[in-house]
């Protein structure tokens, strides 16, 4: 018998990658693509950054697995100490898991146990993962949540201030979404039953839509007023991706729980939640654990990643190259009739395709993404309506690589007649 991969695993490109370095991936024949997908925002320091490779290699020879409810190990303690320097003030207690979904579940469990309340309020278009609980919190598309009901109960979804979709300006959209959240608290999920608000600082799979800062501030106010835990899912937006270390920082708010994963270890699987010790301590002892959480090699890679981010000024580079990328993409958009929006923060940039009447054009987003592959540029689509192409370069991307990416994109759009 010969086995093959599940036909349900849909792959965005035909690339059979053999090796990768920095901003590029290569096939076995040496054909090269500029990788503006970074494994969905994971290879933050670029592919196989020498410092990360070396740290992982060294750790593999020393200790691969030191199960954390059995023993403690150095890389996990070092990583925790380093996170203390970058986490929002007061979030001094860290729990490690392996994937974003798992960390989202840990955050939900913490919020429910700590408050003794059942309900979680999410925001339309949010993506929080594929495990059943995380999928129950996800409204970035029915493909993530239909066909395997019953989902986890106790989840309510409030509108996200998606100004472009409503045809409003941002202020109107924020007023509307905050008003609807208050209405939801009055009519569906009573304050006394609501454990947490859960939101991404920039909607990821839901469309690379920055969450307006005033909306985040409005959530913080309501969370304080009602004793609700504010959980920020920074799985995709964290570790410099948005031009600040965390995506929420420009809002000036501090969350109660922060979820991180993806970019934190440059490709090694690890995720974490952070919360004030006082909050963490309200959950039940022994309610956190797992076989692989805080894997020693992943922790060593994360320590190396944080050092590289700091030493190479990658947060600043993300802000700088992000501006260059956005300006380049806006320039290209100027000669099309179907690019409705170019937006983002730092190196998390989305291009949304719509007809002049506002109808979403998923067909064009998909055609542009595919045409880009032939131009040597790897991209992904996203969006609740599938009509957004997302640009997720590594944080080490250079100005020249950004310009190459924009030039390839311009050619791709010209080819499909967008
Ligand atoms: N939250 C966000 C914001 C994400 O972008 C993702 C992954 N795209 C997840 C959670 C789930 O992470 P994982 O795929 O590692 O379970």
What do you see in this structure?
The chain is of the alpha/beta class and about 425 residues long. The protein folds into 2 domains: about 20-35 and about 315-415, Aspartate Aminotransferase, domain 1, CATH 3.90.1150; about 50-310, Aspartate Aminotransferase, domain 2, CATH 3.40.640. It contains 13 helices and 17 strands. The protein has helices spanning about 40, 50-60, 75-85, 100-115, 130-135, 165, 170-185, 215-225, 275-280, 295-310, 315-335, 360-375, 400-415, and strands at about 20, 25, 30-35, 95, 120-125, 155-160, 195-200, 200-205, 210, 230-235, 255-260, 270-275, 340-345, 350-355, 375-380, 380, 390. The chain has a 7-stranded mixed beta sheet with strand order 4-12-11-10-7-5-6, with helices on both faces. Strands 1-2-3-15 form a 4-stranded mixed beta sheet. The protein has a 4-stranded antiparallel beta sheet with strand order 13-14-17-16. The longest helix is centred in the last third of the chain and has 20 residues, at about 315-335. The mean pLDDT is about 100. The structure holds 4'-deoxy-4'-aminopyridoxal-5'-phosphate (PMP).
Give a short overview.
The protein is α/β, with parallel strands linked by helices and 418 residues long. 38% of the residues lie in helices and 17% in strands. The structure holds 4'-deoxy-4'-aminopyridoxal-5'-phosphate (PMP).
């Amino acid at each position: 018998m010969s086995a093959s991969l599940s036909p349900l695993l849909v792959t965005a490109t035909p690339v059979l990658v053999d090796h990768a370095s920095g901003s590029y991936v290569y096939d076995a024949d040496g054909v090269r693509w500029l990788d503006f997908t970074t494994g969905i925002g994971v290879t933050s320091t670029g592919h196989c950054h020498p410092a990360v490779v070396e740290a992982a290699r060294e750790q593999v020879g020393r200790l691969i697995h030191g199960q954390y409810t059995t023993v403690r190990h150095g890389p996990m303690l070092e990583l925790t100490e380093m996170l203390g320097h970058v986490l929002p003030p007061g979030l001094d207690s860290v729990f490690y898991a392996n994937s974003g979904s798992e960390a989202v579940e840990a955050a939900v469990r913490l919020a429910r146990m700590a408050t003794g309340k059942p309900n979680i309020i999410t925001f339309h278009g949010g993506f929080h993962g594929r495990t059943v609980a995380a999928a129950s919190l996800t409204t970035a598309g029915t493909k993530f949540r239909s066909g395997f009901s019953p989902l986890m109960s106790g989840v309510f979804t409030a509108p996200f201030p998606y100004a472009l979709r409503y045809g409003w300006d941002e202020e109107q959209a924020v007023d509307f979404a905050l008003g609807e959240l208050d209405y939801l608290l009055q009519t569906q999920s009573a304050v006394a039953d609501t454990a947490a608000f859960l939101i991404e600082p920039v909607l990821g799979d839901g469309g690379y839509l920055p969450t307006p800062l005033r909306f985040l501030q409005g959530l913080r106010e309501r969370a304080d007023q009602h004793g609700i835990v504010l959980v920020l899912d920074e799985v995709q937006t964290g570790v410099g991706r948005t031009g600040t270390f965390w995506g929420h920082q420009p809002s000036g708010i501090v969350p109660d729980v922060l979820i991180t994963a993806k970019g934190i270890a440059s490709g090694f699987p690890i995720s974490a939640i952070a919360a004030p010790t006082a909050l963490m301590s309200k959950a039940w002892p022994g309610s956190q654990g797992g076989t692989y959480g805080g894997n020693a090699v992943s922790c060593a890679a994360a320590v190396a990643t944080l050092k590289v981010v700091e030493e190479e000024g990658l947060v600043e580079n993300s802000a700088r190259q992000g501006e260059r990328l956005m300006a380049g993409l806006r320039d290209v958009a100027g000669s099309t009739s179907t690019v409705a929006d170019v937006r983002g923060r730092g190196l998390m940039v989305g291009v949304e395709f719509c007809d002049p009447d506002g109808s979403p054009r998923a067909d064009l987003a998909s055609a542009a993404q595919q045409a880009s592959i032939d131009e040597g540029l790897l991209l992904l689509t996203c969006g609740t309506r599938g009509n957004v192409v997302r640009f997720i370069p590594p944080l080490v991307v250079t100005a020249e690589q950004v310009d190459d990416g924009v030039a390839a994109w311009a050619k791709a759009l010209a080819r499909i007649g967008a």
